Amino acid sequence: MLEGKVGLVTGASRGVGKxxxxxxxxxxxxxxxxxRTETGGAQPTPLPGTVQETAAEVTALGGRGVAxxxxxxxxxxxxxxxxxxxxxxxxxxxxVNNVWGGYExxxxxTPFWEEAGxxxxxxxRWDSAFQAGVRAHYVTTVAAAPTMVTQGSGLIVNVSSExxxxxxxxxxxxxAKAATDHLVxxxxxxxxxxxxxxxxxxxxxxxTESVLRAAEYxxxxxSESPLFVGRAVAALAAxxxxxRHTGQVVSTAGLAEEYAFTDPG
Length: 265
What we know:
Blueprint: E1 6-9, H1 15-25, E2 30-35, H2 51-60, E3 64-69, H3 75-89, E4 94-97, H4 123-151, E5 154-159, H5 171-191, E6 196-202, H6 209-213, H7 226-238, E7 249-251, H8 252-259
Parallel strand pairs: 1-2, 1-4, 2-3, 4-5, 5-6, 6-7
Helix pairs in contact: 1-2, 1-7, 3-4, 4-5, 7-8
């Protein structure tokens, strides 16, 4: 159980981030969730989900959810979000860097075949993956690390993917995910002596709202629910010996085998 523990999950209006927030919440944690989509606000994407709704679901599961509207492309908004967590809760035990960018072609009307090669894509796709993804992970962790170092404990999880090591997932995406993994390895090296653990997490194919929207084109027979990813993070957060994983890439499937949690479906 994670009662008394405090987590921050970025990019948690929906999808994997929401699943991670719920996974922490069902174990009793206080979970701060960030996202751009607010109740009553304009949707950045044509998908359901808001930070307020996620926070309410965390609370309904037995945790305590707190919503923070934040665009992590803005460094000052990111710093303010972390300050709010520390000021209100007095500690930070789990940071999950999930927010990402570079997916705009799903929503801006660009036919997928028009961006079939990296040379056909606007440079903004690269910039978005690194600014809203890698840079946001770095800035959030820079803001959170002093609290964890002072505590002498903490878990940092960067949501990554096999795209970091594969060559068929797109140049910008693959390069950004590889950068995320190396970011974790280097952070773990510097944080090890302070009792803070950092890992990269590879989910499988997750049944997010975006994936389900395209379900007729995707084989979902070996897919995962977002909450399954959340249970992976919760298992790591509850492990008193989690430092043995620091600097490593871990997968949801591997963690399920190690910690014996299941996918609710």
